Amino acid sequence: MKTLVRILIVAAVLLLIGAMAAFYTIYNSDSLQQDVLEEKTFNEPIDEMEITVENSRIEFLPSNDDTARIVVVGNDDNFALKTDVSGGRLVIEVEDTNWFFLFDFNQSYSLQVYVPANGLASLSADSDDGRIQANDIGATELSFQADNGRISLEAVESEMVDVETDNGRIELTNMAADMTLHSSNGRIIFTDVSGELQAKTNNGRIELNAETLDFPVDLETDNGRIEIYTQNEPENARIEAHVDNGSTDVFGRDSRDVSFGSGDVLIRLDSDNGSIFVE
């Protein structure tokens, strides 16, 4: 009897793991060739966008002109698309209408948003379950939030970026802006960025790749390493590294407070459990 119970428990655990893996793959992997399910073009001037989706990937792409366009692609039409334009503000909502989406791993759809070539004053997106990706677009203020899903931005022109995910990696590449990032569970990666950076993750590594550290940086992780890779030592910065459990290596020095030049630019690094490495 005990053996049978153990077998049933193991089988249930394996089934749960398989279901979670399939669910993650659907909402975070790259889309295959999919059908166009619905499409809308907005000819009126759009300065602001607000997008909310339940169970869908969001992909932001540059428009060829100054018009905004949205396309829903996939192989499942169990969704309701709602849009509203008022005073230059476009509101988009995609609701999942299939109550059994958790058990239907063949369904999939994603929202493609084509941002006007002249850019936006503000852009916000909120996804319950699904990846958010943006490439080669412009928005003065940008705010992305996901409960479960990776968030990645590349070559996005912005002045202020605010990104948050409960479960998922955050990646920012080739950008210059003031950035505030938070991930409860997931790695944070900066590549070829500049601006005032603030990033915190409860569980995950933080990695920064930059030409040099000539801008303010504040990185904090509860559980994970902090790694910074540069081509040149900073000329006018002060690096404060704090570790509760782990080692520090700042350009070959084991000191937790290292200054370069007058030390006017503050680089603050804090890890409760994990080493800090800067080179």
UniProtKB/TrEMBL annotation:
Q: Which domain of life does the protein's organism represent? A: Bacteria
Checking Gene3D superfamilies in the record gives: 2.160.20.120
Q: Name one Pfam family in it.
A: DUF4097
Q: Where would I find the DUF4097 domain in this sequence?
A: 46-252
Query: Under which name does UniProt file this protein?
Result: DUF4097 domain-containing protein
User: What species does this protein belong to?
Assistant: Planococcus antarcticus DSM 14505
